[in-house]
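S.,

Sequence below, as promised.
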Amino acid sequence: MRNIMISIQYDGSRYKGWKKQKNNEFTVQGKIEGVLTKMTGVDTEVIGSEGMAVGVHAENYIANFHTDCDLSIDKMSNYLYEYLPTDIVVKSMKEVDERFHSRYNPKSKTYVYKINNNKLRNVFERKYVYHISEKLNLDKMKTVAEVLKGTHDFQSFHTLTANTKSTTRTINYINITEDNGRIEIEINANEFMLNMARVIVATIIEAGQGKIKLQDVEKLLSEKRESEYIPMAKTKGLYLRSVQY
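The prediction came back faster than expected:
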């Protein structure tokens, strides 16, 4: 049995997220599994590195699958490129150790949020970049980002409904860059809870809009409890940039 790791780029605009649903909704995992099953002749499960929400995009999503298929990596790659829809591309494939597991082995993951902070929206980017016409204060955004870095209990920064063993996570870095009104917020953490990246991005944006102060963010971190108000950034500007193993 071969274990194949794949790196995927996809446009999440028309999908119901990554994870295949019981009601056969339109998902990225479902699409890839369908093509692999056709290629191998047997049902093939694809293990994803992250549960991606509806509308979130991926630059380098990592997954793996096990197969007895004897096709070469090049032939499998060509098959996927031919039969997958044009908004999903398997960028690379390689055979890995049988113990490799895309979901359980990551050391960290990186998300990026893309903002058009110019006065006018760009109609060609409306599905991929979030438009904010009012000028954001980058200094305030970076100040809040510094507070969020490190190991904290992020109980106030997720939308999980079920109890988890721990809500403590480590944010290794948050980089905020701006170029001609284009802002990117890049977040790397050891692990993300449900919608954690979107909540953190929204918190940073609200700091840039003057809606939330540094002291408010510090209070959310210290209270270690569910917040009554959890802002969430729109999914269309969010991308899984990379997964580190």
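Strands lie at 2-10, 46-48, 57-67, 88-96, 108-116, 130-131, 150-153, 168-179, 182-189, 238-244.

Coffee later?
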